[in-house]
Amino acid sequence: MIRRVCVLLLLMMATTAAPASAGMRLEDICRIKGQEENSLHGLGIVVGLKGTGDGGDFAPMIRSLAMAMQLMGNPIGQGELKNARNCAIVTVSATIPAEGARQGDPLDCKVSSIGSAKSLAGGRLFTAPLQGPNPASDRVYAFAEGAIMIDDPVNPLNGTIKNGCRLEEDFFNVFSKGDKITLVIDKNLTGFQVAQEIVFSIQDQLRFQLGAEFGQDYQFVRAINQGNVEVMIPPQYRDDPVDWIAQVLAVEIRDAPVDARVVINAKTGAIAVDGDVEIGAALVTVQGIAVQTGANVLPSPFAAVGPKTAKLDDLIKALNAVRIPPAEIIEIIRVLERSGNLKGRVIFE
Fold first, then answer.
1. Domains of the chain by range and CATH?
2. Distance between CA atoms of 197 and 211, rounded to whole angstroms?
3. Which of 78, 243, 244, 349 is most buried, with most CB under 10 Å away?
4. What pLDDT does 341 receive?
């Protein structure tokens, strides 16, 4: 039977975003195009398992193990490996941070079983080459190896190798193109009014930096759409674009939306709401719990919250009052975000 939790949240949804506090900078709500994470991936063999590996009936693992032994100068027939239950074939992945990385830098990597193994606990990844996100390229960007730590004892087929990936070359993300940079507004804050306010703020605070080539009437900044703003690099900064980017990101935005966010640790059930995270009218059903938010809901024992907008922290307080488990509250937040009814950034640790 579904338990129905009707939380009365009076919604008078504003047509414009709430103003930010004075002093918010562009770096708080934007990033430079080119500052994106990159993923590396590959296949590997985990060894040292206590009989919980793929076993001789899983041909892909046997073929991979035989090939690895051949490359190491010890060729062996696949039939001789039929009882190898201490090995498992896995996928290996690593993420290069948005700011890039240098050759030799260590990164954490994730491993996941793709065979018939029962557990990767106690195993160690044999050296595995990692390629880039382009499947058409066989270029090796890094190598991964090391002892596996199981992330969740309930699911021992996934694990992490701390600092197990070592890069073989530098990764420098290109952040300017054609003497221009592009500001990418955070997805939860995009809007035509926000983009135009960014344009006005940059013009107002940085126009004095323009050289004679640009002229006072030159449109050196423009909004491409509601999520991207293009900024020209003045001639005097083209040999040192980092200096110009630092000044652009330091521009203060007086009328930008609040960068509200929710930080969630799914393992511990901890939820931290930073800022006024708003929620829209929705009906969410998770694990037998129905949660309805909006103006036209049935009376409930919880007082109406907020005269203008519904807040996520009030919803969490109401759910805690009726002893809804943290895992189910987290899933409700996930559903609200996916449905577009949560006005803020959700960060999972």
1. 3-18+258-348 (no CATH), 26-35+173-249 (3.90.76), 38-167 (no CATH)
2. 23
3. 244
4. 78
